[in-house]
Amino acid sequence: MNFGLVCQQCKEPLQLDASLIDLAPSAYDTIAASLPPSPTQHTRQLTNDQKLAQVPASPYVKAAWERSTSSTASATNKSSSPKLTSRAQGKQPQRSSDIPSNESFVLLQDSVIRNIPSAPAPPTRSKKTTATAPNIFNSPTSPTQFEPDQSSPSPLSHHLRSAARVFNLLSTRTEIDHPLCAECTHILLKTLNRQLEETKKERDGYIAFEKEIRKEKEREAQALAKEEAERKIEKLQNEERIAIEQLKEAEREREELDEELRLLELDEKALEAEEAEFWRHHNDQLLVAEQQTAQLASLRAAYAADVATLEKLERTNVYNDAFCIGHDGVFGTINGLRLGRVPGVPVEWAEINAAWGQALLLLYTIARKLDYTFTSYRLVPMGSFSRIEKTTGDKATYELYGSGDMHLGRLLHNRRFDFAMVAFLDCLKHLIDHIRSQDSTVEFPHQVIKDKIGDVSVKLQFNQEEAWTRSLRHVLLALKICLKWATNGTNG
Question: Which InterPro entries match (predicted)?
């Protein structure tokens, strides 16, 4: 049954327990006897700082007490902010910051204050309860719905008055306004348990404070004598003098270290300048080395090109280019000039004379390369008008060129031409003998005997043109073999 009661904390409607509806006088007396006496306003308003100020003790002991209590309070504040749950969480009234932690005031909402009329409090209720607690029989929705009728009492009004006496007694003897719902009661129990823990810690602080006071009294009782104090002062003065000397010594060491630091800084600057000069010189050396490397690479490339050119030149036989000996049909040729005559192929004497001039020049060149000197003749190469001079005997001169004229003077000239060709063949024979003496492995296919080479005479008179042409071809072949041996790298 709901009698219009509301929780004095969260303002939610309450329903009384069945044990409170018909409370016996003996039960009421038992509840009243178990409650503590009503606290006074003066004792609730005393704070820890005020209590500490009233205690006669030295500032050192009070500072020790404040340090012990501050560490306790910091550990307590971290876990002392309970949060309301369920429906009481959103309707918990805020508490002013200047109210001490041991005071308990309930701040009512404006709507509750307007709707609930004030009622005279019982004479035994404290000032706080009268000012803050509303009438437990008034509801925010209908303030006079359950007002008892004094003229005609009923069982309902009797039960209400009995519950009202119990709630007023509880509110008067304690710091909590009743009635409370189950959730607010649970929160209240948590708060009371926390306060109990804080009270225990406060008791421990008082015990520590008492111990500090006793120690301070013991130290004051055991004060040093005057002589001992003077000895202590003298000792302290000696220590001060020693400390001053040590300080002066440290200052001298500091000055020495500053001077050493200055010298080290100068050395560092000198080393930095030397290092910069070293790196500059190093960079110059690197540039010079790079230039020399580039120059060396250029020289090596030029050397490689010159070596290739030299190898090419070494492989090139200038004598073969200057004296190209070959054949054209039955004719032997030197530099493209035919040497000889056959019937049906008229070869001009100018071409024959030029070919003889090239042959004489070749024989002269081979002898000069081999550093060989003919003992009986001296070769005079002069192109188409070359001649051979005899160096012994009558020192005659023989022209190595012919003519096709048939007059008497030309016949004598052709005879001298025959003598010149025989002298040429004699010089060739001596050169062949010299080459054979130097290298016996050289083979000549035709043997030279007097005016014949390969059993064919080199004379033109009284000789057939085919035989004469064949002998001249043998002469060119012998010259080619001599030239090949003379131009070999191991000879000459």
Answer: Atg6/Beclin (IPR007243), Atg6/Beclin_C_sf (IPR038274), Atg6/beclin_CC (IPR041691), Atg6_BARA (IPR040455)
- For 170-206, letters b (16+ CB in 10 Å) and e give bbbbebbbbbbbebbbebeeeeeeeeeebeebeeebe
Residue 323: CB partners within 8 Å, gap ≥ 6? 334, 335, 358, 361, 362, 365, 479, 483
Could you give the CA distance from residue 323 to residue 359 in angstroms, rounded to a whole number? 8
Give CA–CA dist 130/123, Å, rounded: 10
pLDDT at 77 over 70: no
State the Cα–Cα distance between residues 6 and 112, nearest whole angstrom: 11
Of 384, 459, 381, the closest CA to residue 416 belongs to: 459
For the residues 449-468, what does the mean pLDDT come to?
A: 86
CA distances, 383 to each of 19, 137, 387, 408 (Å) = 167, 165, 9, 25
CB 492 within 8 A of CB 376: no
CB 357 within 8 Å of CB 384: yes
Distance between CA atoms of residues 23 and 180, nearest Å: 18
Q: Compute the C-alpha angle 191/192/193, nearest 5°.
A: 90
**Cβ atoms 237, 244 nearer than 8 A:** no
The whole-number pLDDT of residue 164 equals 77
- Measured at the CA of 219, the angle between CA 214 and CA 221, to 5 degrees, comes to 95
Q: Are 177 and 106 in contact (CB under 8 A)?
A: yes
Model pLDDT, residue 82: 39
Please give, one letter per residue, the 3-state secondary structure of 412-473.
HHHHHHHHHHHHHHHHHHHHHHHHHHHCCCCCCCCCEECCEECCCECCCCCCCHHHHHHHHH
DSSP code string of 290-316:
HHHHHHHHHHHHHHHHHHHHHHHHHH-
Name residue 446's amino acid. H
Number of H helices, E strands in the chain: 15, 8
Pairing of strands 331-334, 377-380: unpaired
| Per-residue pLDDT band at 92 (split at 50, 70, 90) | very low
Model pLDDT, residue 110? 36
pLDDT in tens, 307-347: 999 988 877 778 888 888 998 888 999 999 998 888 888 88
H or E segment to which residue 157 belongs:
helix 155-173
Buried b (16+ CB within 10 A) or exposed e, 143-163: beebebeeeeeeeebebbebb
pTM of the complete model:
0.41
**Which are the contacts of 464, defined by CB distance < 8 A and separation ≥ 6?**
none
For residues 4 and 145, is the Cβ–Cβ distance under 8 A? yes
Of the pLDDT bands very low, low, confident and very high (cuts 50, 70, 90), residue 239 is: very high
Whether a cis peptide bond, with omega within 30° of 0, leads into 120 is: no
Q: Is the pLDDT of residue 39 over 90?
A: no
